[in-house]
Each structure stands twice: as structure tokens, then as C-alpha cells.
Design brief:
With about 575 residues, the protein is α/β, with parallel strands linked by helices. Helix content is about 25%, strand content about 20%. It binds flavin-adenine dinucleotide (FAD) and 2-acetamido-2-deoxy-beta-D-glucopyranose (8 copies). One 2-acetamido-2-deoxy-beta-D-glucopyranose binds next to loops. GO terms for molecular function: flavin adenine dinucleotide binding; oxidoreductase activity, acting on CH-OH group of donors.
Length: about 575
């Protein structure tokens, strides 16, 4: 392993400045647009950009959070871990999780231009070819297949030199073998080296590709809302605009139409209430929801679209009774496995020392270089369990992983407090093909109160078995000769996990999320009796309403999802343009 140099391949475009960004309702020059897009994350920023390519198409993008510009913790790649409990995040909490021994966990979602792409850890994975081919099968739309998605993937990716300036030859190019890492070679039967995990075939250990543009985060905001696009006079972006509902505007061929969006720019904290006046903006063609797997469900349900019993209990009139809205919430459980190491060259020197952190931020400010230009991720590995005694296989096929491991050159945990001293390595395990399904349900008609979020983490024996298998594999890696003299011993909680019962208790006590909620308003084939949208994102049995974000995925990808959702955005935009002849 090359522990002191993180490989980073940047993607997308550099930082934006702004022309048509509005901060107040009064400034917005129109009340009617062709398209009104709700939420400026991975899905919404792509739609806003692509639909406004045609100068005659008027597009409004509404975002609850503020601008991304000047938000240092979002810009500098090493810093976003701190954003989870700030005003740049929705600061959600889950319901008690039985798979986590009854713990509730913090559930971050980005709340600024770029959405979670402005706060995430920047790992960039396309998912396997089998995954996309399964999407095609589950939706009955061959357009979602791996082969047919290639052109949309290429529309999203733009490789640039590595952020820290190191030579990336051999990290995604088969011609060189010297950077493969010792552990991989030693354990090659379990962990073959994978030169490019974005080739369609993911299994093995390799170098991560990341959404970093030379030295700063590349997000939906910095790329798709860059200055050259914000200068389009037909694209308006309103920040601080919390959408409270969408409204029925009539019926088209017997179907309820939803072409009005109600929102407020009152500054209401999560859980607060607001009597400030609501504003309505109309779309002549479509309203497109891209508020993410939690936000989109909350808006649908507040608008009378969802399971009738749940809505009636809160006094909300049901306009479309669809039990699939908010069902099947799926996420990837994560566990930070920590080890003491014999080195002074870990990022702990920075994270445990506020003075040094400030010095390194100053270096980045002055030079756009220094130790903070990389993310904390060093290598990613993807693997399968040979068999699972607890149920049918959940993966899309035999070359799609059940779990992922992530190497980090320091102490990285959301459940164990950072010690005041020491040097560490973290090998994260994440279950990427879980069987458990959860829900997003409303608890209130107040749009500023978060819905109940129950991702049902490790809620099946199947998922627990995968996590136990992943931790066991990590312990085997850590015990390999290649680490002799480097890894000293496991951290306290992991060190105590010496029996099957203790291992399970450790997993339940320390697991959390890798922040990938999805599947709460799933696509299904046209005419299906379940699901929320057709394969083009159009909401079933309604008119004028489409969804393009993580909620429409029929199954969670065994991958980091941001690229997958960018690709949904690219194809979604293409389908909209075709439908309206744009
Ligand atoms: C901490 C963290 C780390 C992550 N790390 C990675 C990673 O390394 N790699 C990876 O691939 N993925 C990662 N992800 C996940 C990835 O970022 C998300 O899956 C992806 O951004 C989801 O796209 P989306 O469009 O569905 O939602 P989002 O990107 O979350 O965008 C939704 C947008 O809608 C806005 N919104 C919500 N409700 C309303 C409302 N009522 N009114 C107006 N606006 C609203 C939100 O503020 C937000 O801007 C991470 C996520 C987090 C939070
Ligand atoms: C986040 O939520 C926690 C717990 O619910 C709360 O204590 C904290 O004040 C919130 N932070 C912000 C910035 O809203
Ligand atoms: C990168 O490394 C390769 C292999 O060592 C070498 O051939 C190439 O010249 C290097 N490139 C640069 C720009 O140094
Ligand atoms: C929006 O549409 C609704 C329903 O058609 C209509 O009553 C309202 O006047 C429209 N608002 C604007 C600002 O055009
Ligand atoms: C949940 O997903 C499964 C398929 O994965 C589907 O059969 C089922 O109908 C979904 N549940 C709801 C309530 O939509
Ligand atoms: C780390 O630094 C300490 C204090 O300077 C020193 O004693 C120790 O030998 C160093 N360890 C390594 C592995 O370099
Ligand atoms: C913290 O960083 C400062 C600045 O580099 C340095 O002078 C100091 O020795 C560091 N403190 C510790 C405990 O390492
Ligand atoms: C770095 O720049 C940001 C934005 O200009 C500023 O807020 C911050 O104080 C600077 N930090 C340091 C340590 O120089
Ligand atoms: C859509 O309407 C049709 C016809 O009424 C019905 O059969 C179908 O179940 C509905 N689908 C959903 C998801 O509500």
C-alpha cells in the first residue's frame, strides 16, 4: 500500500461564479417556467443544465439550502466530514435501528447547491455492468442497460490530472504494474488487483476515481452550474427556497396534473414552523422532483401522493393512493474498523491538531495544494461472499460485489470519538447489496419537521452475515505479512471482538451509514401495479410530474451512487428533450 499518497483522479469541471442566481423571491423575474426543478443535487443540477441548453426553454431550479460558493468545508477535499451537523446539512436522525441494537444514527444529506455532491466523500463509481443490465430488466426499458448508458456516462466524466500531482500511470491503465500494492499481490486469490473498477467489472482492489477537479471538490454545483451555464438567461436558480408542497392544477385525460410548486424562502430551522407566506410558481410543461430519497418522498406525501392510510391519519387528502411512495428505502451499512499503526505519516497529525489544520487550510488557500487536496480514501476493494445461508442472492450477478472495503490513512469514524493522540489506519466495511428494506413516513404536516427515516440497517440476518464476513476478511488482510511492522494492533472495540457473539455486538454497537439512501419512489415497468414512476421517471397515473434522483432507483446499486445518479440525470434529461422536441 502507498499510504502517504492518495491517488485521485479528478472529474468534471472547476469552480463556478454566478450570474442568474437569486436569493429572494422578489428578485425572481418570472412566475411561470417550462420546467420547475426541485432540489439542486446530483439529479437536479444535471436536469437544470441540460434542459436549459435550448435557449427557448425556461428553467427554474429551486434549492432549499444556500449557495455552495465560498463554503470552505465543501471546497477543500479533505474537509467535508465536518459538514454533517451544520446548516449545510438537513441534520436528520433515523428511528432506532434494531440491527444497531436500538441506536438511532445521524443521517446527513447535503443542503446547499450541489446537494449531497457538495458534502460527500467524492468516491466515483459507475456500478457494474450487471447492475445496469438489471435496471433495464426491472424497468422493462433497455435504455438503462450498460451498453446503452455508455454515452451518458461519458457525458458526465472528465478526467484531469491527480489532485496531489502524483503520477497515476498504472492506477487505471493496464500498462504498468508497480503500483498495485503489496497486500493485493500477497492475497491475490481473495483480492485480485483491479486496474479500473469503472470498467463494468468491479471485483478486486484498486485505486479510487474521485470527483475532484485538480485541487477542489467537483460537484453538481461546480460542474453543471458553472459560470458558463449560469449566464444563460433562460436558467434561473433560486436558493433558500424550501419547497413545501406541489399542487394539483387540474386533470389531463383523467389523470390529476401537478404543475404548481409551493415554496417559502423564510429561514426556518429543521423542526421549526413558519407562518410566512408561501409562494407558488407554475410549470407549463413539467415539475421535476430531485429532492433526493428523503426530500422527494416528503414532498409527495405532503401533496397527497402516497399511501392513503398514512396520509389520512395526518388529515392529508389523498389525490393518488400509491403505497410504494416511501417504501423500500435501502441504504449501505458501514463499519469503521480501526487499527493502531507504527507511522507518523497519517492524517491524524492534522485532524488531531487544530493548529496544523488551520495551517494546512492556509496553505490550501494560498496555493490550492498541500495535504488537504486529497480525500481520506486511499483504496477501494469490492468482494463477494461465496454463498449466503440466509437467503437468495441480492446482487445483480456473479461479478457484482456484496460488500466493499475502503482503506483510509488515519482515524475515520462517525461512531467512535477521535482520540487526542495516536496514529491509525481505518479499513471500512460497507454492505453494498443489502437485503433489508426500510421506509420514509410522515409524522407531521409541518414541512419543516423531518419524516421518520427508518433505513432498517442490518435488519436481516443476511445483511449481518455479510458484515461479519467483511470484517473477517479485513482482519485477514490486516494480519498479512505485508503489514508486519506497520499495523500494531486493532483498536479497542475491534480487538475485543474475538468470539462470534462479540463480533456481532461490535458490529451492532459501531455500525452507521455510508450515506447512500435510495429506492423510495422506484421506477417499474409501464403499467405495473407497483412502483412510483415509469422507466422515464414520469410519476404513474399523474400528469406533469417527473422524479429524477436517488429515489427512483429500483434497487440500490452495489457502488457509490453519485455517478449513477448523474447518469440518471443525463438520460432523464435526454428523454425529456425527446418528449418535448427540445
Ligand atoms: C456525507 C456523505 C458522503 C457521501 N459520499 C459519497 C461518495 O463518496 N461517493 C458517492 O458516490 N456518493 C456519496 N454520497 C451519496 C451521494 O452524494 C448521493 O447519493 C447523491 O448526491 C444523491 O443525489 P440526489 O440528487 O438524489 O440527492 P442530493 O444530491 O442529496 O440532492 C437533493 C437536493 O434537494 C434539496 N432539497 C431537498 N428537499 C428539498 C425541499 N423540500 N425544497 C427544496 N430543495 C430540497 C437538497 O437540499 C439537495 O440539495 C455521500 C453522501 C453524503 C451525505
Ligand atoms: C442537529 O441536530 C442535533 C440533534 O438533533 C441538534 O442538537 C443540533 O443543534 C442540530 N444542528 C443544527 C445546525 O441544526
Ligand atoms: C509516470 O510514470 C510512468 C511509469 O513510471 C513513466 O513512464 C512516465 O514517464 C511518468 N510520467 C510522468 C509525467 O512523470
Ligand atoms: C398557477 O397555476 C394555478 C392553477 O392553474 C393558477 O391558479 C395560478 O394563478 C397560477 N399562478 C401563476 C403565478 O401563474
Ligand atoms: C418493494 O420492492 C419490491 C421489489 O424489489 C416490490 O415487489 C414491492 O412491491 C415493493 N414494495 C412496495 C410497497 O412498493
Ligand atoms: C514518530 O515520532 C516519534 C516522536 O518524534 C518518534 O519517537 C518515533 O520514532 C516516530 N515513529 C516512526 C515510526 O517514525
Ligand atoms: C500541532 O501543530 C503545530 C503546528 O504545526 C505544531 O507546532 C505542534 O507541535 C503540533 N502539536 C502536536 C501535539 O503535535
Ligand atoms: C481560507 O479561506 C476562507 C475563504 O476565503 C476563509 O474563510 C478562511 O478563514 C481561510 N482560512 C485560513 C486558515 O486561511
Ligand atoms: C394506475 O392506475 C391503473 C388504472 O387505474 C391501476 O391499475 C394501477 O394500479 C395504478 N398504478 C399505481 C402505481 O397506482
Amino acid at each position: 500500500m502507498h499510504l502517504s499518497s492518495y491517488p485521485v483522479l479528478g472529474l468534471l469541471l472547476p469552480i463556478a461564479c454566478v450570474a442568474t442566481l437569486y436569493e429572494a423571491i422578489e428578485d425572481l423575474p418570472a412566475t411561470t417556467y417550462d420546467f420547475v426543478i426541485v432540489g439542486a443535487g446530483a439529479g437536479g443540477t444535471v436536469l437544470a443544465n441540460r434542459l436549459s441548453e435550448n435557449a427557448n426553454t425556461k428553467v427554474l431550479l429551486l434549492e432549499a439550502g444556500p449557495s455552495n460558493l465560498g463554503v470552505t468545508d465543501s471546497i477543500i477535499p479533505m474537509l467535508p466530514q465536518g459538514l454533517a451537523v451544520t446548516t449545510y446539512d438537513w441534520n436528520y436522525t433515523t428511528t432506532p435501528q434494531s440491527g444497531f441494537a436500538g441506536r438511532s444514527i445521524n443521517y446527513p444529506r447535503g443542503r446547499l447547491l450541489g446537494g449531497s455532491t457538495s458534502t460527500n466523500t467524492m468516491a466515483y463509481t459507475r456500478a457494474s455492468n450487471e447492475e445496469w443490465d438489471r435496471y433495464a430488466k426491472l424497468t422493462g426499458d433497455d435504455g438503462w442497460s450498460w451498453d446503452n448508458m455508455q454515452k451518458f456516462m461519458l457525458m458526465n466524466e472528465k478526467f484531469v490530472a491527480s489532485a496531489d500531482g502524483h503520477n497515476t500511470t498504472g492506477q487505471y491503465d493496464p500498462s504498468l504494474h508497480s503500483t498495485t500494492g503489496m497486500t493485493t499481490q500477497e492475497l491475490s486469490e481473495d483480492w485480485p488487483f483491479n486496474l479500473d473498477m469503472n470498467s463494468g467489472s468491479m471485483l478486486g482492489i484498486g485505486w479510487p476515481q474521485q470527483s475532484i477537479a485538480t485541487s477542489a471538490r467537483s460537484s453538481g454545483a461546480t460542474a453543471y452550474l458553472a459560470a458558463e451555464f449560469m449566464s444563460r438567461s433562460n436558467l434561473h436558480v433560486l436558493v433558500n427556497a424550501h419547497v413545501t408542497r406541489i399542487l394539483q392544477t387540474g386533470t389531463d385525460s383523467g389523470k390529476p396534473a401537478f404543475r404548481s410548486v409551493e415554496y417559502t424562502t423564510a429561514d426556518v430551522p429543521t423542526g421549526g414552523t413558519s407562518t410566512a407566506p408561501r409562494t407558488v410558481v407554475n410549470a407549463t410543461k413539467e415539475v421535476i422532483l430531485a429532492a433526493g430519497a428523503i426530500g422527494t418522498v416528503q414532498i409527495l406525501k405532503l401533496s397527497g401522493i402516497g399511501p392513503q392510510a398514512e396520509l389520512s391519519a395526518l388529515g392529508i387528502k389523498t389525490i393518488l393512493n400509491n403505497p410504494s411512495v416511501g417504501a423500500n428505502l435501502t441504504d449501505h451499512p458501514l463499519l469503521s474498523n480501526l487499527f493502531y499503526v507504527n507511522s507518523n505519516e497519517t492524517f491524524d497529525s492534522i485532524t488531531m491538531n487544530g493548529t496544523l489544520t488551520e495551517e494546512d487550510i492556509a496553505i490550501w488557500n494560498a496555493t490550492q495544494q498541500g495535504p488537504l487536496v486529497d480525500s481520506p480514501l486511499a483504496h477501494l476493494g469490492w468482494a463477494r461472499v461465496p454463498s449466503n445461508p440466509y437467503g437468495p442472492d441480492t446482487t445483480a450477478g456473479p461479478t457484482t460485489p456484496h460488500y466493499e472495503i475502503l482503506f483510509s490513512n488515519g482515524f475515520l469514524s462517525t461512531t467512535t470519538p477521535l482520540p487526542s493522540s495516536g496514529h491509525f489506519m481505518t479499513i471500512v466495511s460497507a454492505i453494498t447489496s443489502p437485503a433489508a428494506r426500510g421506509t420514509v413516513t410522515l409524522t407531521s404536516t409541518n414541512p419543516f419537521i423531518q419524516p421518520n427515516i427508518d433505513p432498517n440497517m442490518l435488519g436481516t440476518d443476511y445483511d449481518m452475515y455479510l458484515m461479519e464476513s467483511a470484517v473477517t476478511a479485513i482482519l485477514k488482510i490486516a494480519a498479512a505479512d505485508a503489514w508486519k511492522g506497520y499495523i500494531i494492533k486493532p483498536f479497542e472495540d475491534l480487538a475485543a471482538a474475538t468470539t462470534p457473539d462479540a463480533l456481532k455486538a461490535y458490529i451492532q454497537a459501531k455500525s452507521a451509514t455510508i450515506f447512500h439512501p435510495a429506492c423510495t419512489a422506484a421506477m417499474s415497468p409501464k403499467g405495473a401495479s407497483w412502483g412510483v414512476t415509469d422507466p422515464d421517471g414520469v410519476v404513474k397515473n399523474l400528469s406533469g410530474l417527473r422524479i429524477i434522483d436517488a429515489s427512483i432507483l429500483p434497487v440500490i446499486p452495489s457502488a457509490h451512487p453519485q455517478a449513477v445518479i448523474y447518469f440518471l440525470g443525463e438520460r432523464g434529461a435526454s428523454l425529456v428533450k425527446t418528449q418535448y422536441g427540445l
